Amino acid sequence: MLLAITLLFTVLATLGNEESIVICASSEQFRNDELQKQLSERFPDKNIIVMYMSTGKAAAKVFSEGKGTEIDILVGLETGYMNKIRDSLSDISGISRIPYHDGLAPADNGNCFVTWERQAGAIVVNRTVLEKYGLEAPTCYEDLLKPEYKGLIAMPDPKSSGTGYFFYKSWVNEWGLDGALDYVDALYGNLKQFTESGSGPIKLLKQGEVAIGLALTFQAVSEINEGQPFEIIFPQEGSPYSLTGTAMIDGRENDPEILEVFDFIVNEFLKYDKEYFSPEEIYDGQVNRIDGYPESIVYADMTGIQDIAEKERLLEKWKY
Questions:
Q1: Could you give the 3-state DSSP secondary structure of residue 118?
Q2: Average per-residue pLDDT in the chain?
Q3: Which of 28, 39, 82, 278 counts the highest number of beta carbons within 10 A?
């Protein structure tokens, strides 16, 4: 208990230090750890703190505190939330040197954030569990409604997970709101559970508790490379996805120390993160160093995925 209290006061004291640079990152912990490591190596004389906060909580904090927040840089925040807090973000015109694909460049984001990544999903199955029950793998969303899959499917909850939401949004775009809600009503009877996080289905697949998960592609590939008996199935409607962004809080662009760190993150570490961790393509010439990652992925129609008002409207209709 004494150790925990000491650690707490140490962190609070560090955050209160005017010389510290606070980065709020919403990526998985291993990616945040790599960011912290590279920043410490690149800027040994700077006191840089990378702290994890979920995308929704980070946005709520900045929305509430505005430019007075202790956060200096946001990394990997869902772009819908970026648009909601854009009045508290710096103009980052001219900082990024990444050759983004059409529609993903900073200018397309109002020059208040750079696109950080595309997080895409698919139907992922555990072949061993399917064989245990003598079942064939599904080939499409409609197959997931088959009675033989009852209790063997997991999906992230759209209310708490951006992954769950992009599946939901892709169904709305494909079938209309009523059609999507009818599908979810039918799917619900086969679900073992809605997971709180986007990584939840992968965890249940690893544990053998479900045979099928609506999950993140890059997490599935990582587990396959570790020897898990998974298979990735892209639905005929295309791979659904969401986008995340990275930004500075307004006024921080006037601090050369913060600006230098931000420049490194969006022009150098972004490339490393895409090459080794999250390789869905967002810029020309992007290199993928992850073995076995699917190529030539066809993406679903994700019109409106960055519209926070649309997200709030659709989640009001979500009854589970």
A1: strand
A2: 93
A3: 82
Residue matched to tokens 């140490």: 10
* CATH (one of 3.30.300.30, 3.30.160.40, 3.40.50.300, 3.40.190.10) for 119-241+297-317: 3.40.190.10
Residue with tokens 């001219």: 94
**Residue 19 CB neighbour total at 10 angstroms:** 8
CATH 1.10.8.60 fits domain 2-118+242-276: no
pLDDT single digits (tens) 183-210 = 999 999 999 999 988 899 999 999 999 9
Residue identified by tokens 């997931």 is 144
Instruction: List the beta bridge partners of residue 246.
Output: 114
Residue 308, SS3 per DSSP: helix
Token look-up 């890059």 returns 218
- Every domain of the chain and the residues it spans: 2-118+242-276, 119-241+297-317
Q: What is the dihedral of CA 29, 62, 67, 259, to 10 degrees?
A: 20
Q: Are 47 and 20 in contact (CB under 8 A)?
A: yes
pTM, full prediction = 0.84
Q: Which amino acid is at 14?
A: T
Residues 6+ apart with CB under 8 A from 142: none
Among 98, 155, 106, which Cα is nearest to 281's?
98
Using alpha carbons, select from 101, 124, 78 the residue that is nearest to residue 246: 78
